[in-house]
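Private note to self, pasted from the team thread so I don't lose it. Backbone tokens:
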């Protein structure tokens, strides 16, 4: 599937596997695994989604590419989106799910559920 974004990519692609391994190691060396039950990770994920939502709460509609945002605002958004992604990857890992394959399967399922109209 080719990206339809008109915004140039600045960074190399990172696999979900690489993220999973890095976040697992990060937690392991800090002995945080004991706190990372599926429930606790989900609640942390919800909290991070809330923080992400706060960034947009009073902005109204926002243009693609965020052309009117300051570099500080974009950096804050990048950090909160990253928190959401990392908790999601970690939650899938702790639940024994293949997040990448699940996402691809969901795209196929959605294509069947919402076929193209003429």
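Design output:
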């Amino acid at each position: 599937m080719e990206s339809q974004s008109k915004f140039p990519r600045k960074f190399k692609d990172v696999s979900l596997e690489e993220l999973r391994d890095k976040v697992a190691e990060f937690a392991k060396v800090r002995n945080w695994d004991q706190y990372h039950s599926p429930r606790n990770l989900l609640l942390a994920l919800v909290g991070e989604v809330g923080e992400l939502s706060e960034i947009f709460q009073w902005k109204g509609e926002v243009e693609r590419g965020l052309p009117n945002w300051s570099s500080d605002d974009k950096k804050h958004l990048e950090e909160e989106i990253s928190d959401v992604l990392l908790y999601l990857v970690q939650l899938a890992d702790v639940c024994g799910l293949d997040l990448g394959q699940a996402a691809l399967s969901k795209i196929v399922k959605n294509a069947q559920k919402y076929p193209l109209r003429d």
